[in-house]
TrEMBL record:
<feature type="transmembrane region" description="Helical">
    <location>
        <begin position="190"/>
        <end position="210"/>
    </location>
</feature>
<dbReference type="InterPro" id="IPR020846">
    <property type="entry name" value="MFS_dom"/>
</dbReference>
<keyword id="KW-0472">Membrane</keyword>
<feature type="transmembrane region" description="Helical">
    <location>
        <begin position="97"/>
        <end position="115"/>
    </location>
</feature>
<dbReference type="Pfam" id="PF07690">
    <property type="entry name" value="MFS_1"/>
</dbReference>
<dbReference type="GO" id="GO:0022857">
    <property type="term" value="F:transmembrane transporter activity"/>
</dbReference>
<feature type="transmembrane region" description="Helical">
    <location>
        <begin position="408"/>
        <end position="432"/>
    </location>
</feature>
<protein>
    <recommendedName>
        <fullName>Major facilitator superfamily (MFS) profile domain-containing protein</fullName>
    </recommendedName>
</protein>
<feature type="domain" description="Major facilitator superfamily (MFS) profile">
    <location>
        <begin position="30"/>
        <end position="457"/>
    </location>
</feature>
<keyword id="KW-1133">Transmembrane helix</keyword>
<feature type="transmembrane region" description="Helical">
    <location>
        <begin position="295"/>
        <end position="318"/>
    </location>
</feature>
<feature type="transmembrane region" description="Helical">
    <location>
        <begin position="339"/>
        <end position="364"/>
    </location>
</feature>
<feature type="transmembrane region" description="Helical">
    <location>
        <begin position="65"/>
        <end position="85"/>
    </location>
</feature>
<feature type="transmembrane region" description="Helical">
    <location>
        <begin position="370"/>
        <end position="396"/>
    </location>
</feature>
<feature type="transmembrane region" description="Helical">
    <location>
        <begin position="28"/>
        <end position="53"/>
    </location>
</feature>
<feature type="transmembrane region" description="Helical">
    <location>
        <begin position="154"/>
        <end position="178"/>
    </location>
</feature>
<dbReference type="InterPro" id="IPR011701">
    <property type="entry name" value="MFS"/>
</dbReference>
């Protein structure tokens, strides 16, 4: 580590040839496959939420009980994030997608055929175990193929736009809309079977068309085979790929770094605002404005999805622009400069949208109140991704060689910490009301941005407190 906070972690001298292995068109294709895989978790959760009341009626239970499945699936996502990210560093990115998608397919069939609440919970967990590769490992793929001044934009696209056979659409728009319409006009079980079919299609596309993106010679298996070459010089890659047992929770040691810890916690508090709007929607907008149709409830997610789709690429481009401008003005930049792009979302859009949405639902009745609430859904969608996108790119900048693991530890730990409060959102709205619940979430969002501000201001010093393998190489 540098002994001076003013010494940039990243410089601009290293070669960038490793990022030229794939043509721009091939990179777009790779991002498309990865984004398709990341689309599935959105569908698994987004299509489930509008159906909660119908599922409760079908299984003869309450909406509060069924809503616990959302928190349980977050728990499963957290566990498998650690697993897939750890093994992706050893075996590569592509095998992790091929291992996770069959689990998602099996879980989707199980959810579709569940006849009891325990069966529903178990198969939701299995389904979640198969979805997480698209997040943590997908971000690692982005870091493999894009240099540092392009990652914010690429991650913004990866986070917000999911491309399938040249048709780009926002996962957070499609999932609840299709889930709600499917539940209303067919069955929530049909929606789950649709997830099974989609998972099979994406598995086939990844298997036949997606290359391995890990940098040559950097995978653990490459190093192991290189050490294990035959004495006669036979290519070690022809030997059988070894099976190794790795500690999937080993990446948790990255949380020793206050930089990683603060970014993880701030993103989690922003994401709580996301779930506070989505999970109890039947008990907030639905109850206040007399909306019981699952298809309409699903359509209410559209403004928030549009906010996600618009906000993520804009925030990514802004963070890249900040780095380029700082380099032009000062000859180099600090990696924390990217966090300046988090201010609009973390300081204003996320907390204020929660406050105003709560006030609107509490005090403004009728169509006017509903319209205003949807406007705040849109601004909240803008803010959450504008907060998270640059922060995720920052972590990849400072830990590029462990990008999948740092994304897993942030996504996984965040999901573990949020699984309990997310499960309590519906009971909180029922027992305390919309306004008090949303005020609490807004305050937590401001606390989260405070952590980003501290990292921006003192990040260099914080890196010296605990060096977990930060990049000392040149900017790429």
């Amino acid at each position: 580590m540098s002994n001076s906070e003013s010494t940039p972690l990243l410089s601009n001298a290293d070669p960038e040839a490793v990022y030229s292995r794939f043509s721009p068109a091939r990179k777009v294709l790779i991002v498309s496959f990865v984004s398709c895989s990341s689309l599935l978790p959105m569908f698994a959760s987004g299509s489930f939420i509008p159906s909660i009341q119908q599922i409760a009626a079908d299984l003869e239970t309450t909406g509060q009980v069924v809503s616990y499945a959302v928190g349980l699936s977050m728990f499963g996502t957290a566990l498998s994030s650690f697993f897939f990210a750890t093994y992706s560093s050893f075996y590569g990115r592509r095998p992790m997608f091929l291992a996770g998608l069959p689990l998602l397919c099996a879980g989707s069939v199980g959810v579709a055929t569940a006849s009891t609440v325990p069966q529903l919970m178990i198969f939701r967990l299995v389904q979640a175990l198969g979805t997480s590769g698209g997040g943590a490992v997908g971000a690692g793929v982005i870091s493999d193929i894009y240099k540092v001044t392009e990652r914010g934009t690429a991650l913004g696209v990866f986070s917000s736009v999911n491309i399938l056979f040249a048709a780009a659409l926002m996962g957070n728009i499609l999932a609840p809309l299709i889930g709600g319409w499917g539940a209303k006009y067919a069955s929530w079980r049909i929606v789950q079977l649709g997830l099974f079919v989609t998972g099979l299609v994406i598995f086939g596309a990844v298997y036949f068309l997606m290359p391995e993106t890990a940098h040559p010679g950097t995978r653990g298996v490459d190093k192991l085979l290189s050490r294990d070459r035959n004495g006669d010089g036979e290519d070690s890659e022809r030997r059988r790929i070894p099976i190794v047992w790795l500690n999937p929770f080993g990446c948790l040691w990255l949380l020793r770094s206050p930089n990683v810890l603060f970014v993880m916690m701030s993103g989690g508090l922003a994401l709580l605002a996301d779930y506070a709007i989505l999970v109890p929607i039947a008990y907030t907008l639905g109850a206040r404005y007399n909306i019981t149709n699952e298809a309409v409830l699903g359509a209410l997610f559209i403004p928030k999805g549009l906010g996600n789709m618009i906000g993520a690429p804009l925030a990514g481009r802004l963070s890249d622009h900040i780095l380029v401008r700082r380099r032009e003005e000062h000859g180099t930049f600090m990696p924390e400069d990217r966090l300046r792009a988090c201010a609009p979302g973390g300081l204003f859009l996320v907390p204020l949208s929660m406050l105003f949405c709560g006030l609107t639902v509490h005090f403004v009745p009728g169509p006017v109140g509903l319209a205003l609430a949807l406007v705040f859904f849109f601004t909240n969608g803008l803010g959450v991704v504008a907060m998270q996108g640059p922060a995720s790119a920052y972590l990849i900048d400072i830990l590029r060689s462990r990008s999948a693991e740092v994304m897993a530890v942030t996504v996984g730990t965040r999901a573990l910490l949020l699984s309990l409060p997310v499960s309590g959102l519906v009971p909180a709205v029922i027992h305390f009301g919309v306004l008090p619940t949303y005020i609490g979430v807004a305050v937590l969002a401001w606390i989260g941005y405070g952590m980003i501000w501290a990292t921006l201001k003192y990040g260099g010093t914080m890196r010296e407190w605990a060096d977990v393998g930060f990049e000392e190489s040149a900017m790429r």
